[in-house]
Structures are given as structure tokens and as C-alpha cells.
Amino acid sequence: MLRFVLRRLALMVPVLVGLSLLLFAWVRALPGDPARALLGERATPDGIARVNAAYGFDQPLFVQYFTYVKALLHGDFGSSIQTGRPVMDSFVERFPATIELGLTALLLAVVVGVPLGYLAARHQGRALDTAVVSGSLLGVVTPVFFLAILLKLVFADTLHWLPTAQRQDPRIEATHITNFYVLDGLMTREWDAAWDAAVHLVLPAIALGTIPLAIIVRITRASVAEVMHEDYVRTAESKGLTSAVISRRHILRNALLPVVTTIGLQAGLLFSGAVLTETVFSFNGIGQNLFDAIGHRDYPVLQGFILFIAVVYSLINLLVDLAYGVIDPRVRTS
Amino acid sequence: MPASVKQSLGRATAVLAIATLALTSCAKSERDDSGGGSGGGTFVFAGSAEPVSLDPFFASDGETFRVSRQIFEGLVGTKPGTADPAPLLATSWDVSDDGLTYTFHLRDDVKFQDDSVFDADAVCFNFDRWYNMPESAQTDDLTYYYATLFRGFATGDRADEAIYDSCSADDATTATITLKKPFAGFVSAMSMPAFSMQSPTALKKYQDDGANNPRTTDYSTAHPVGTGPFELESWERGKQVTLDANDSYWGEKASIDKAVIVAIDDPKARADALANGEIDGYDLVGPADIKPLEDQGFQIENRDPFNVLYLGMNQKAKPLDDPKVRQAIAYALNKDEIVSASMPEGTETALEFVPPAVNGYTEDVTRYDYDPDKARQLLQEAGAEGATIEFNYPTGVSRPYMPQPEDTFNVIRTELEAVGLKIKPTADQWDPDYLEKIQGTEDHGLHLLGWTGDYNDTDNFLGVFFGTSTKEWGFENQQLFDDLKEARGLPTVEEQTPLYEKINQEVMDYLPGVPLAHPVPSLAFSPDVQGYEPSPVQDEVWNTISLG
């Protein structure tokens, strides 16, 4: 197991080196100039030249790349052109917001999606199944930003049930230790702060979680339906096992493998959805920061954040692979 | 379905439903309870972005200055509701006849928020600090205003052009600043937050101007100390800046206990947050949101315009090099229609490239009143009937001087096509594509752009536009460049005024572009907010606010 993990971690190295090169080329291929984005209407040719010199953008590209990689090897991801802050600091500060939102969305998708998919499979062809299949289809085809705007319009702007923006009411005095606001509220026993942060998560999490939820429903339904007709399920039934035991031990456990793969993939894809959701709800995570960085041609932030996300994505996939072994011992032995 | 699974699912659904109901109802009640009562309370204001630093010397953006204006004060302020200089930390000042020596008489009852005394030594410490800025901090992103207005630092490639000479503390309440060259806008410029007086004690303890980035030092993020009516409680990056009322403030003390500034970049999202009770006020209201907000009982406050929106013409793009074509375009525009179709109520049409409040403004300039027949005739004389002209305009942006560029473009396009010109529209994302194309290349024709003044100085408008040859305008007019240089070098505003009036006439005769309007920037507030005083140069300090 340890060898497997180490081998997978080692494989990440060439992936990240390749990605750093691609990212470097991509951000510089974007039209526009970070110095002009920084100085805005006040830009003058001299001013732009001075900023470019200060950030090394006047150097040849290969010099810039090697400077960048050299700094990376020393753990220095550079500083944002817009704010001057180290990229790592901004990432560490904002990543908890995205993780908090992503986990809530994923939790919603799994907790609602797996039972719904299971129920639909067990009631194939009936009204419940039709409703679940149609609903999930609608969920898959609804763009995240559209759903986010719609939810905000109905539940925040019109009904005023939920907040429209931010992660917490600015009037609440909250202590932040981990920057996971709900967790911080619970740790410091500031219940109103925890509650308020949870309330701020509701709409963004629903918007972000709907597509994964719909996909999980469909995969679970298909997987359970397939397993239900396996010989070992019939054997278990003929042995006189109770329906609950068959469901838990034989159907769900075997049907879960593709579902876990899907959950892993969706967890990674949540990052791309977060860019849109966080922007609509002014939710200050890495998604919104990335969106701003693209607008400002903030090369170091773009490169740093996307590299971090790639690392996190790879680690999630590794965890998914490890989870296979837990769910299905055959995978572990092979 | 097995009974046990059915039961569990049923239970889970019920719990989920109850939790959702409880969540939403509690959220509502909680927000209903928030907000300040009469006297005290927390004022929550939304800007469009976070500040870049809490040391205003290293900033040139409005969001940083919004926070700075609460914490810091300069020697000079502005008269309420105007851009004109007024006493603040200095009660008065004398200027020598040659315009090189400024003697400031200071208040004697002022302390910084760290209890250190504000006096002439503190003034000189600040001036000397700015002048001796390390070369690493002499880039336009960090020290734009000092470099632009004082022309250079003690060291670096612009040292020879620097106009600051020295500061002497004559006594505790008298500081004398000596310049090497006259700078008539000096007193007005001192009202800008970049030139706020900062505590020497705190600067020595927490600031490092030579740091890799002085905007991220301890001072710039956690320990800014000024003399203003609020002091910093905390800056939680990505969340909010929280300010506490300064109980030992020398002037009118704030009646609110706290002020919180949050960043919401989308104007519609700011309007939604106000309507939902999450904030008490916000800046840069989109014109489309004004009526709905007013209908819901929210207050709209307008600033007197201190800006100009213009239709620029790049003379490198033919036939815009022909004065008759430029005049034809000016005559083809119905500015009243442009304003009514795409600008907020209260917007004034523009006669020239400076707003009326600026020194040197004159109504005695060549006017190009809407006359489509004359426009057609001029085009005929120029042989440019049916000419195709590229028209660049930005998308995805709303600036105080250009609230709805797409709508403005559409009206102008229709008017130009009505006189026989063919328009080739080119839209670009504002930042950085549009600005790059207009200011950094010659690849553009007609274009929409503008400017909001920083302080009351004509050079801050005309000098920015026409002080030198630029790719935006694509012309060489040495006479105009020389006149602007001469005006900038005159020692007093009184001497500058007739020359700037002449330059405004000269510009409108030459017609490098068509000044269109001075749009009114708006702020919105909940009905509870009282006493907000809008300022054309955004010199808005919140000690006047109360929450009713």
C-alpha cells in the first residue's frame, strides 16, 4: 500500500513539471499586459516600463520561466501583481472557503444523490423513477451560473430568506482560526457566527452541488440496477437473507465502486464550478480570486493557484483509488 | 423497498426539510435584527474591491482611499461638497510670491491614534519619507501620485526633475515646505489621501519602505496610524475592514461605533445586498438600479460630477486626421440624446474636457451644437461621405464617467450613421484588452474613454489627456504641449487661470475628440443612514453619519 502511494506521488512530479510549463505559456499567451491592467487608465509608457522591469516581465521568456521554476523549487510561488501578497498566503487564506463550499456541495450531492439513485433503481419504471430520472437530467443540463443566479434571484433577492453575498454577515463579530467559518464558529463556541456562516453556504452549495448530485443519482441508479440482477444477489435471495442485508452487503457495496469514482471526479470538477458560483455569490474563495486574476492578467496568481488545484485534484484521485481498496478487497489484492 | 430503508429515508427527508425551514427562517430573523439603533451601531458599506494597502502613500485606487479617509487626514481637506481646498490639519497657509515656499500653520490639539503628537516635526517626517523613498518603491503601481505630482524622488532616474526641496519645522505648529520649481496645484494636491499625515512613531516601528512590497508590511496591513475619526480594528483579507470610532479625535467624533467595509465587485450584487439588508450603503450604483432602489425606499445620493466622458479620435486612423471630419462628427452628435439614453439623471452635457468646477473652465469655447446637415456638408467638403470608421468601445465595465458604454456606443453609432458615415464596431473587454488597445497601440479609431479628477487642478485633466504625444490621440501639436507645460510651471492658480482658459479654447478649436458628458456618480443607502455627505472627489468621511 505504501509503495503504491509513493509511486503515485512520484508520478505527480512529471505531471506538475509539464503543467508548470503549459501554464507559463498559457498565461503569457493571454492578450493584454499585466502592467497595464495594474495601472489602468493611469498607465503611461514609462510607468508600464518601470512596472515590467520591477516584475521581470522585460526579460526573455526562457529567463522568466527558469526564474519562476527556480523560485518554485524554493517553495516560492511569487507574489500577486495586483496585491503584492505572496501567492501562497492568498491561497492558504482563501482555500478554506472553497473547500468549505465544495465539501458542503459534495455532501449534499452524496447524501441526497445516493439514496435517490438507489430508490429509483429499486422502483424502475414507476413514477418515482421517472421523476428522479427526469429531475437528474434537468440537473445535469442546467449550467451552474444559471442555477446560481436563479437561486439568488428567488431565495435572496425576492423572498429575502437567505443572504445574497459574502461568507458571513459583516456585523457579526467572529473569531477566525482556520478560516473554515462554520468550523471556527463551532470551535470558539460562537454559535451565531457558525450558524450565520452555514446560512451563507446554503445557496452557493445548492448551486454548486446540483450537477454532481444529478450525476451521482444517475450513476447510482444505473449501477444498482445492474447489480440487482447479478447471480450472487439471486443466490442471496434464495438463501433466504433479508432484503435489508441483501441491499447493504450485496447490492450497495458492489454498486458503490463506480459511484465512488464519480464522486472523486466530481470533487475535482467542483473547482471549476466554484469559479462561477463564488463569483455570483461574491463568496471569497479561490474561484473568485482566479476569476479576478484572469481579468487582471495576474500571472503569478494564475500559475500558482492552478498548480495548487492540480495537486489537490491529483491527491483526490489518489484517495479515490485508495477508497476502492476499502470498498472492494479484490482491488486491494490485485 | 425494504421497510427499514424506507423508514430511514423517510426520517432523513423529514430532518432535511425541517432543517432547511429552520435555517431559512432563522437567517431571515437574524438579519432583521441586525443594524444599528439610534446612536452608535455598525455602518456596513460595500465598495467594489478590497483596498490594496492601508498605507495610502502606496496606493492610487479609490477603494484604498475610501478606507484611508476614515483613518488619516492631510494638511488640507476639501470644502464640503466641492473639490476646493480647505483647512484640515493645517488651519492656514502662506505662499511666497515665487510659488516655491509654502508655510503651513498647524492645529495644536491633534494627536495620532497611537497618542503621539501631531506637530511640524511629524509633517517634515512625512515629506522627507516620501522624497527619500527607496528606488524599489519608485514604480507607478506603488507611488504613482508622488512620482507624478512631485516629478521625482531624491534618488533614481527622475531625481533631477524632482520639485521637492526641503521641509523645516519652524516651531511646533509651523512647517515650511520649499519646492525647487513652482507647483500651483500643490495645496490642492495635499488634499489627496496619498499625502495624508501618518504617525512617525508607528511608521518607524512597523513600516519598511524598502521591503519587497511595502504594501504588505505590518504597518500597511495591521498598524496604520493617522489622526482621523476612525482607527483600524482589523483587516480580514477577503472579508472586511473593520474600523472603530476614535474616541480621542480632535474634531467631530463619529456617532457610529464601527464602520465595516466589504468588497462586492458586481454593482447588481451590491444592490441586491442592500435590498436584502446585508449592507447599509454602497458606491457606484448602476444607472439601471437607481429607480428600483428608490421605489423600494432606499436613498440615492449623487456626487457633483468631477469627471468627463469623451469620444476620442485617433488621428493616425484616416480620415480622423482631417479637421473637417472631426468637426462633422462633433456636429453629428446629439449630446442631450446620448445623456438621456445612457447616463444617470442629473448628468450634464460637456462643453470641454474639464468639468465646470475645475480652474480654467470657460464657456467661451467653440461649440458644436447638434446639426446633422452641417455634419453632412463638412463630410462632403472633406470627401469623406460614406467613409468607414472603426469605433472601439469597452464591454463588461461601468466607470463613474462611463456608466453604460454599450448603450452610449449604440446611440452615437446611430447618430453617426444618420449623417452617412459607416461604423465598424469593435468591442473589447475593458481590463486590460480595451485599455491596452486604446492607450498602448495605434490600432483604434473613434473610442469612448474618460477621466475622474483626483483633485482640483486643470493639469490633472488636460495634462493627462494632451500633455504629450500619445498613441491614444495620435497627434503632434507642439503648441498645445508647450502651452500646457507653461501653465503647469506657473506659480499660482490666479496666473494659471487665463492660460488654462486659452488652452481650453485651443483644444476645442483643434478638436482632438468630442467631450460628451459629466455623468453623476451615485451612492445608495438604506433609509436608516443619515448625514452622508457626498463629495465630487470622494472626500467622504463617516464621522457625519448616524444610523436612525
Task: Describe this structure in a few short sentences.
With 334 residues, chain A is mostly helical.
Written account of the structure:
Chain A: This is ABC transporter permease. Chain A is mostly helical. In chain A, 78% of the residues lie in helices and 0% in strands. Chain A folds into two domains: 45 residues, no CATH class; 242 residues, MetI-like fold (Orthogonal Bundle). Chain A is globular, with a radius of gyration of 24 Å. The N and C termini of chain A lie close together (11 Å). In chain B, a hairpin with a 5-residue loop joins strand 4 and strand 5. In chain B, helix 10 runs antiparallel to helix 12 and helix 16 packs antiparallel against helix 17. Chain B has 548 residues and is of the alpha+beta class. Chain B is globular. The N terminus of chain B is likely disordered. Chains A and B meet through helix 2, helix 3, helix 5, helix 7 and helix 9 of A and helix 1, helix 4, strand 10, helix 8 and helix 14 of B.
Report low-confidence residues of chain A grouped into runs of 5 or more.
none
Strand elements of chain B, count = 21
Number of helices of chain B: 17
Given the structure, what is the number of helices of chain A?
Answer: 14
The overall pLDDT of chain B, averaged over residues, is 89
Pattern of helices and strands of chain A: HHHHHHHHHHHHHH
Largest sheet of chain B: 7 strands, mixed
Question: Percentage of helical residues of chain B?
Answer: 25-40%
What would you call the shape of chain B?
Answer: globular
CATH class of the largest domain in chain A: Mainly Alpha
Structural class of chain B: alpha+beta
Helix-strand makeup class of chain A: mainly alpha
Low-pLDDT runs of chain B: 1-38
User: What portion of the residues of chain B fall into strands of 2 or more residues?
Assistant: 15-25%
Largest Cβ-defined interface = A-B, 72 and 64 residues
Number of strands of chain A: 0
How many domains make up the 3D coordinates of chain A? 2
* Ends apart, CA distance between termini of chain B: 59 Å
Oligomerization: heterodimer
How would you characterize the largest beta sheet of chain A? none
CATH architecture of the largest domain in chain A: Orthogonal Bundle
